[in-house]
Specification:
The complex is a heterodimer of chains A (290) and B (322). Chain A is α/β, with parallel strands linked by helices. Chain A has twelve helices and seven strands. Chain A has one domain: 3-Layer(aba) Sandwich (Rossmann fold). The longest helix of chain A has 22 residues. The chains are: A alpha/beta (290), B alpha/beta (322).
Amino acid sequence: MSKLQREVEGGGPSIEYIEEMASRLRYHIVRMVGKAGSGHPGGSLSSADIVAALYFGGVLRVDPRNPLWSERDRFVLSKGHAAPLLYAALAEMGFFPVDVLLTLRKLGSSLQGHPDCRKVAGVEVSTGSLGQGLSLAVGMALAGKLDKKDYKVWALLGDGECQEGQVWEAAMSAAHYKLDNLRVVVDHNGLQIDGPVKKVMSVEPIVDKFSAFGWETVSVDGHDVRELLEAYRRPVAGKPLAIVAETVKGKGVGFMEGVAAWHGKAPKGEELDRALQEVSVHEKAEERGQ
Amino acid sequence: MRAARDAYGEVLVELGKENENIVVLDADLSSSTKTAVFAKAFPERFFNMGIAEANMMGVAAGLASAGKVPFASTFAVFATGRVYDQIRQSIAYAGFNVKIVATHGGLTVGPDGATHQALEDIALMRVLPGMTVIVPSDAEETKQAVRASVDHMGPVYIRLGREAVPDVFPAGAVFEIGKGNMVRPDVSREQVIAAPPYTLKFDVSFIACGVMVKECLDAASILESEGIKAAVAGFASIKPFDADLCLALARQSRLIVAAEEHSVIGGLGGAVCECLAENHPARVLRIGVNDRFGESGSARELLAAYGLTGSSIAEKVMAALR
């Protein structure tokens, strides 16, 4: 961590640092899901760069020493099954010790299979039943406007999740109330449990849908940190912003990439070893050095 | 005679003046739920979410997470069954401080018919961990219950009716979450609990909520004229349930009657049976809707057709005691 922080240049964290953190998050995800023996690696890995750029790119204003700070930015993981990713980011930020990560999904652990805001500092709301997070984010954004606070509210949605009607109820209300303090990132990895989103129930054209609902929209490469940061910093006025991030499900683990079967399955045995090898170059070196 | 929902609109405005964190949401029924009164007084703190109840519940949860005290209102059918998952996942599991105040509960919705008559809402809300469930009997109890819900940290469901109802809440009585009230005879809850077993010698004790408190009072008058001694308790607080008063009444009575404008399954009658079966097995008669949907008709016609009027209840009690 300290080694990486030394690489931070000038005004904000360097691209290299953010990419480094993204690969560190991927390493945690694979280890956690492997140890738990169950979980959702595919959609956690596809969102890793999105979340790394938010938390480690100097975008999200949060304070691990004061998780309920009233001025904090809010992050809602609407695709709650990507919990391992959120937990990894929170641990690396310092909300709780990194070694807690390996208790994921175990009896008595604060790290439930899907995020529980009553158990984990830094988790804003409890999610897991898809389609509900954007409504929660709209409520937070409305409260921010009422209280004349300048915090921003971020929600990360899956593309398959956009099949839920409530997402569009929420999208409609966000534009109606002109919530320009609200940002949505859609992890557009194109896969859901039963197969390609286009085949199961197409949500296309997703960018046009948000535009039609009165949102400012932008489409980016969800694995290009530079593009993500640019989109995150895009100024908007009078409208919420939807960032549709093109991603690859399972990104970072070759045999998981673009395979729907890895949505909710833990790698075991040799597969786990291979996956860990692919995501753990730096960590292995660090561990050997200790 | 006053509709509980009118009292709701009124107390919301009072609370709005006292507490600037109170915000109100509605789903295009504000003139029926009476949240429109609040909207007029505090337009900046009122959010009409349109005909989109699922989003309304999630937005209420988000507002609560930022320290607001949101009241979310619509008809009871839409405020519970339609959004059960949103209440379960986004509100109750997170323990958010959302007050769901539903109007148009029960059969007495009337001519709109079964689609608009919530007969399962108490059961649905009662089963959620951490949810407080309140069904006030009249305008005064409604005002007190709404106030009590603000002082309570956590999710609350309050069910109100559509029709104007007579005042039955005893003058000077205080509504408390988790406590019932004696409405008849003129004896306090504490006196009933303190009385040695079988000394008050009630033939029948009614445990009722909502509009059924009035019907049970009517039944008690009829029974009294037949020489049958009847007590009536208002159990507006269905969850937490007043087990102390329920058990005390069972120890004073030959028969317990649970009455609600709701399915006999899973509501107040369910709570009474659970409490007594586990602690003091007693004879219970459940008055409610017998596992069926409602239909169109006037409120009075429907209560009569479904056996929920005072005279019908009195007949059932006499048959049970014979």
